């Protein structure tokens, strides 16, 4: 007898667990990334994600689980210019609009404030999520049309202090 995996709708009633990323999460994170192509990511970005996940800056990268299923991921990273990036944040496309992305982002902002106190937060995102980050207190500092690829602009945003 084959066990049925709960649907994402059934999982929504369960709490989201956030934990550090491990190499065992690679396939799940890449699957989440791919679920967001072409609206939020371009296929050309996948090698960059894989390089990041294989790199040395993973001490502050996390996955979000619901019911034992990895449904999101994201991290923070200290930059050479004394800013802190929110990096490679994503929620599986099936869970967009549920509030889980906001919860994951709030967690990452909290981790950044905990570890790096008052350093400015920055993010390079697309025009599709610019409004999401503005609601959290980020402001647009530059805009590059098609910077991530055709139809995906780069919106560089910054938050000076926690909202």
Short structural description:
The chain has helices spanning 8-11, 26-35, 46-54, 100-116, 130-135, and strands at residues 16-20, 61-66, 69-78, 84-91, 121-125, 139-149, 152-159.
What secondary-structure arrangement, pairings included, does this model have?
Elements: H1 8-11, E1 16-20, H2 26-35, H3 46-54, E2 61-66, E3 69-78, E4 84-91, H4 100-116, E5 121-125, H5 130-135, E6 139-149, E7 152-159
Parallel strand pairs: 4-5
Antiparallel strand pairs: 1-2, 2-3, 3-4, 5-7, 6-7
Helix pairs in contact: 2-3
Q: What characterizes the major β-sheet?
A: 7 strands, mixed
Report the CATH C-level class. Answer: Alpha Beta
Radius of gyration: 16 Å
> Tally the helices: what do you get?
5
CATH homology-level superfamily? Gcn5-related N-acetyltransferase (GNAT)
Spatial order of strands in the largest sheet: 1-2-3-4-5-7-6
Averaged pLDDT: 90
Structural category is alpha+beta
Kindly estimate the percentage of residues that lie in beta strands according to DSSP: 25-35%
Tell me the count of domains.
1
What does the overall shape look like?
globular
CATH T-level topology: Aminopeptidase
Helix proportion: 25-40%
Shape-level CATH architecture: 3-Layer(aba) Sandwich
Q: Are there runs of 5+ residues with pLDDT below 50, and where?
A: 1-6
